[in-house]
Amino acid sequence: MARAPLGVFACIGYDDPELLNSAAPDLAVLNNEGRVLKHGPDRIGLCGLFPAKGREAAYRAMSDSDFRVIMNHMPRLAEESAAHGADLYLCGHTHGGQVRLPFWGAILTKSSTRKRFEAGVDRVGHTVVYTSRGLGLEPPPAPQIRFLCRPEITLITVRPTAQQ
Known about the structure:
Elements: E1 8-11, H1 17-23, E2 27-30, E3 33-39, E4 42-49, H2 55-61, E5 67-72, H3 78-83, E6 88-91, E7 100-101, E8 105-106, E9 120-124, E10 127-131
């Protein structure tokens, strides 16, 4: 069985935090909160954002990290997070658009970022932005189908760029 030696973390989307805690008591839900995780000599900043006010303290909590990972349900804080030194921004919300056309992509994402960050890898300066298509569907009245938009669970492995 795989283990997560530094812990298992999540950020809030449309979830009920109490339900998450009861279903997965070892899951650390970061709600506008930052932490620094130590892995050997490396200091990894991890931050879970919620669009409400109060994000500044979360960014500050990981300011002296070697590598900064920011999680948010939506892609709309990607540029703000890049300005705060994020190396990796992880989000979802768009479901990849659910219905996609060849050579165009998502018809509609219901995201304030429109087609930018609709799915997959993008960049804001040096920050890598990954938008997961996830497993679920947008709630009605969105169509309860996927077309040319496979659901996904993504495994991202972060490795040091230089061994000392």
